Amino acid sequence: MAGQLSIAKALNGALRKSLENDPKTVLMGEDIGKLGGVFRITDGLQKDFGEDRVIDSPLAESGIVGTAIGLALRGYRPVVEIQFDGFVYPAFDQIVSQLAKMHARALGHVKMPVTVRIPYAGGIGAVEHHSESHEAYFAHTAGLRVVSPSNAHDAHWMLRQAIESDDPVIFLEPKRRYWDKGEVGDAADLGLHDARIVRAGTDATLIAYGPMVKTCLEAAAAAEEDGRRLEVVDLRSLSPVDFRTLEESVKRTGRAIVVHEAPVFLGMGAELAARLTEKCFYHLEAPVLRVGGYYAPYPPSRVEEAFLPDLDRVLDAVDRALAY
């Protein structure tokens, strides 16, 4: 799989390798077989591995996840796709009440190697229920691992690591970045839950994940023209969080801005800001700031660009942080 690939192709390759390496790996989801998924992430897999391993499921998200739990109990390693982010809510009870709790309920004797793939967030001009950012729900739920790649290399290797995990993993795929290309190396270079410093800097730390990493890199490049060096950290894992990498970065720069698409109110940024304030208080030169979506239902596609955090909103937060 090494070479320049889109995120979509990198994910497809990860699924293919997982199917090849473990006969107990099975894929399930709406239209993932003959169609290859609405984003073509599973394109060609049913043809090569058969309908018993790449399964076109009914339109029933609760049933998809419930069946995956049953398969995991029987020794399989299911990978299920939720077709769009907003469709996950019918399966929410299965995920938080059963999937996340089974390991603890069985006192550690039962493993739940289930990966739930969810294309999430906005920016594709979709209709209602197709652009949700619900990561905080799952990160708040003990028993779930929650991760989100931002580039092709991480998409490929993090998905393979997620599928190999004996714990349930919510794998959030930034759908508007599916067609972004990048180099995919021939091995994973980080653990599934390690953060990555993707750009070094000295004046402030931008913390992001998924679709907002690219936005923060663009903001850092623009800020450099004004002589400001911004460090960009790709969180990669939302639960557990690699706080060590975050704290070391913030202690170096003295300022932090957390950026995500989800609404700022009670979003991932709230927990990150609180923890960094506790751990880095004597190193901070300004409050930890947050940039995100508005506390409102996701808007119609014609105005979604006004809702999504962009380069200007990130740079405005940088200005405010540096003004202290």
TrEMBL record:
Signal sequence residues: none
InterPro entries: THDP-binding, Transketo_C/PFOR_II, Transketolase-like_Pyr-bd, Transketolase_C
Reported cofactor(s): thiamine diphosphate
Family annotation (Gene3D superfamilies): 3.40.50.920, 3.40.50.970
Molecular function as annotated in GO: magnesium ion binding; oxidoreductase activity
Keywords: Oxidoreductase, Thiamine pyrophosphate
Domain Transketolase-like pyrimidine-binding span(s) in chain numbering: 5-180
Keyword Oxidoreductase appears in the UniProt entry: yes
Name of the protein described by the UniProt record: 2-oxoisovalerate dehydrogenase
Species of provenance: Streptomyces rubellomurinus (strain ATCC 31215)
